[in-house]
Amino acid sequence: MATEQNEQAQDLGQEQADQQTAQTQAETEQIAVSVEDLQTQIKNLEESLKLEKARTANAVYEAQKSVERIQRDAEKHKETVIEKFAKELLDSVDNLERAIQAAGDTESALLEGVQLTLKSLLHTLEKFGVVEVDMHNGFNADLHQAVGIAPDAKAGEIGTVLQKGYTLSNRLLRPAMVLVGQ
User: Fold this and answer.
1) β-pairing, 176-180 with 144-149?
2) How many domains are contained in the chain?
3) Tens digit of pLDDT for each residue in 154-180?
4) Residue 168 and residue 117 share a domain
5) Which pLDDT belongs to residue 143?
6) What is the pLDDT of residues 122-153, one digit of tens each?
7) Distance CA 77, CA 116 (A)
8) Are residues 24 and 12 in the same domain?
9) Which GO molecular function terms does the record list (predicted)?
10) Which of 33, 47, 55, 153 could be stapled to 159 by a disulfide with Cβ–Cβ 3.0 to 4.6 Å?
11) At what angle do helices 2-103 and 109-127 cross, to 10 degrees?
């Protein structure tokens, strides 16, 4: 009976060993499958990461370009507004110069006030880049508009200035209207 119990114990031990071996093999296969699955997942995640990095870089680039475009548009708008405002102020400059010419040679406090106002307005315009067009170096079609012929002026020279011209930041704001010699 002891031998029989011994054999049963050995058979039981053998069955347990076989079960453990089978279980170990199943776990090993599961681990192998799991490692392969994990490697596949890692590759997929790395590809997704590369794609997202590319999208992020593209979005950053587009944002920078948008900011630059908005800044350029804002600068152009600012220049346009300043140009319109300066053109409107030139009418006041012309009117003040006409008032001074109409006063003639008579000195008065009113005339002095108009002269100081004109001087202050011209100084303010100069601060913002509005400068009078040069009239001393002869006729220049880019800066002057010939509206007639001055009989007493030499050919290519400016005879009479009917209206002063101005530039804004080296761009023509208003051409000078002049009479030119033949």
Assistant:
1) parallel
2) 2
3) 877 888 888 999 999 888 999 999 888
4) no
5) 87
6) 999 999 899 999 888 888 888 888 888 888 87
7) 32
8) yes
9) adenyl-nucleotide exchange factor activity; protein homodimerization activity; protein-folding chaperone binding; unfolded protein binding
10) 153
11) 150
